[in-house]
């Protein structure tokens, strides 16, 4: 009996060591097992033609007398309106901004380069207008024929047209559907090749919506790019899906 009492602590310690080793070993094996989940990214992409165009241009007149400058500018406005109308652009598609007035001066200097006085050279009146239309090809062609106005004595500054698409909401939904299907197909392929099967969807997140010129080298932006300089565009979006693997 005395022997048993002496050996009991040693036996208990041995049992404790065995149990601890078993627990640690089991934890280690569980930690080393593969996580039965998969994360995939799918792509939705669509090319389309813009259905809305905006085109801006401006012109100006200079005169010593303000009334004369206004008269000259108004005459140019009538010429521009007639030109646009002859091209087939509707009146409700044209917006003329308020005229901007500025005074022009020349600085005079003496032979030593010191400023002496400012001499008034007249008024400059600037007029800008914008055409916004769904007749994309018509406005695009018109913007290329402004030389007719220049030949008429109008100093026109024409800016590059900007192209937009008015059905982005519907397009985005369609692309999300494409990207989701693409991601699911990828997940099923990976799961089947790995000897498993696709389980429940646990998480879905949408990537950034991008619009670039078709077949271009436009860089993608983390905040989303939105190309307006090209009539033909490509939109893309990604969907990231997480699945369990059975």
List the defining traits of the structure above.
246 residues, alpha+beta, Translation Initiation Factor IF3, Alpha-Beta Plaits, 4-stranded antiparallel beta sheet, 5 helices, disordered N terminus
Describe this structure in words.
There is one protein chain. The chain has helices at residues 2-32, 66-87, 136-143, 147-151, 168-193, and strands at 37-49, 52-63, 94-96, 100-109, 115-133, 156-158, 162-164, 198-206, 210-213, 232-245. The two termini are 57 Å apart. It has 3 domains: 1-33; 35-49 and 167-245, Translation Initiation Factor IF3 (2-Layer Sandwich), CATH 3.30.110.170; 52-164, 2-Layer Sandwich (Alpha-Beta Plaits). The strands form 2 sheets. Strands 2, 3, 4, 5, 6 and 7 form a 6-stranded antiparallel β-sheet that branches. With 246 residues, it is α+β, with helices and mostly antiparallel strands.
